[in-house]
Amino acid sequence: MPINYKEYHPKWKLISKLIRYKRAKNKCEWCGVMNGTTIQRQPAGQWRYICATQWAMIRNYILNGFTRVQANKKLGFTKVVLTVAHIDQDKNNNRFGNLAALCQKCHLSHDHKHHVANRLYSRKHKGDGQLRIGI
């Protein structure tokens, strides 16, 4: 989901860079995976770097007309993207102790309860999202 910078501190891009690159040293602060690397997620959520054979598989897919993203998806690989999470879910609380540089897996896991609550609230107050015809 794209970020709406209007909801964040005016210097959010700078704050985010400081957290991701200076403090976290370009790694997820919870699981340790390096930003920008291609990994393979395991069923229990662990990860591992891919080996030379797997790189060759990606290369073969690309040579056969797939994009890098399509090849990764087909083979079960993903590229790590670090984001900054508000630990207390409050976008106005930008204290460094409340922020963490997280990979997409850790960030989604952290925000899971918040996303479920938002979805339930939306269904209750905006309907269930189903199109009603002929009612």
Give a verbal description of the structure.
By secondary structure, the chain is of the alpha+beta class. It has a domain of 80 residues. Helix content is 41%, strand content 13%. The protein contains four helices and five strands, in the order αββααβββα. The chain has a three-stranded antiparallel β-sheet with strand order 2-1-3. Strand 1 and strand 2 form a beta hairpin. Helix 2 crosses helix 3. It starts with 11 loop residues before the first helix and ends in a 9-residue tail after the last helix. The mean pLDDT is 87.
Task: Give a quick set of tags describing it.
single chain; 135 residues; alpha+beta; 3-stranded antiparallel β-sheet; two-stranded antiparallel sheet
Task: Produce a short descriptive summary.
10% of the residues are buried. The chain has four helices and five strands.
Question: Which helices and strands appear, and what pairs or packs with what?
Answer:
Elements: H1 12-23, E1 38-41, E2 47-49, H2 52-63, H3 68-75, E3 77-79, E4 83-86, E5 99-102, H4 104-126
Q: What is the general shape?
A: globular
Order of helices and strands: HEEHHEEEH
Spatial sequence of strands, sheet with the most strands = 2-1-3
- What is the rounded distance between the termini? 33 Å
